[in-house]
Amino acid sequence: MWLTLAFTSAALLGLYDAAKKQALTDNAVLPVLLLNTLFSTLFFVPAIVSSECGLGWFDGTLLDCEPGTAQAHGLVVLKSAIVLTSWIFGYFGIKHLPITIVGPINATRPVMVLVGAMLLFGERLNAWQWTGVVLALVSLFLLSRSSRREGVDFRHNLWILFVALAALTGAVSGLYDKYIMTRLDAVFVQSWYNFYQLVMMSVVVALLWWPKRRATTPFHWSWAIPLISVFLSLADFAYLLALQQEDAMISVVSMIRRGSVVISFLCGAVLFHERNLRSKAVDLAFILVGMVFLWLGSR
């Protein structure tokens, strides 16, 4: 069951990346991210109200959850800060880079998660799964070479650094998720971490963007903005439910989620008409084969 949820989350993440790229085109990053946290929070407000007020609106459904303790809220606040840091770096990166480059770079995130999972949780991969990891690393190496044709030098590009930092903090988030999801309810985590992100992002926008809004890239409304929240909320919900399964391996779930690069790559080709697709398709093929090996090793 957790594998099915992981693959569902991956497909939704691909659509999330495409909506994010569309919303950020010639647009201010921070207000787009603020609206994303706002819409994501609104989706789960009924679950929060029902839980905290004891109304029982969602008893016996997937949105059923219990009120959390102060310690539980503290754990979620920390998750919110980690995820928001990753998002800020990632949003700036995807705005300035082709989505067909950003997606494969993000596919390296599970490798970081793998190292952490082995050190912290004692997870071990079999030969099939190791093969999948190696193929993902080969894909990143090939991508760094093919991207030079578009003037993107991995060693001297600020936005590549931002995407790399987003991947690193995203990996930290994945390891932290494995820790807290053995202790907290998935609906409680997603409901409240969206809310805390909204609070944090409101402060960031008020301090960093609003005073300088007339001197930076202007903000304009796009219907892709609410789609970011829709796809992300559904992807995260499937992901957190997967991690609640006792036999779920965070290293494998994280790698499968990076299969979202397939969807984002297709959107980059069809919707954004990005270049150098043939060589990038070879990079993508390595990731796809790696996903197959991971699936075979997890059956």
Structure notes:
- With about 300 residues, the protein is an all-alpha fold.
- The protein has one domain.
- It is about 75% helix and about 0% strand.
- The protein has 12 helices and no strands.
- The chain has helices spanning about 1-25, 30-55, 70-95, 100-105, 110-120, 125-145, 160-180, 185-210, 225-245, 250-255, 260-270, 275-299.
- The chain is globular.
- The N and C termini lie close together (about 10 Å).
- The relative contact order is 0.24.
| Structural class determined from secondary elements | mainly alpha
Order of SSEs: HHHHHHHHHHHH
Number of individual domains: 1
The fraction of residues assigned to DSSP E strands is: under 5%
Largest sheet: none
Number of helices: 12
Contiguous runs where pLDDT drops below 50 for at least 5 residues: none
Distance, first to last CA = 11 Å
Oligomer: single chain
Walk me through the topology.
Blueprint lengths: L1 H23 L4 H25 L16 H27 L2 H8 L2 H12 L6 H20 L11 H23 L5 H24 L14 H20 L6 H8 L3 H10 L6 H22 L1
Helix pairs in contact: 1-9, 1-10, 1-11, 2-8, 2-9, 3-7, 3-8, 4-11, 5-7, 5-10, 6-12, 11-12
Brief summary:
The chain contains twelve helices and no strands. With 299 residues, it is an all-alpha fold.
Short key terms for the protein model shown above:
299 residues, mainly alpha
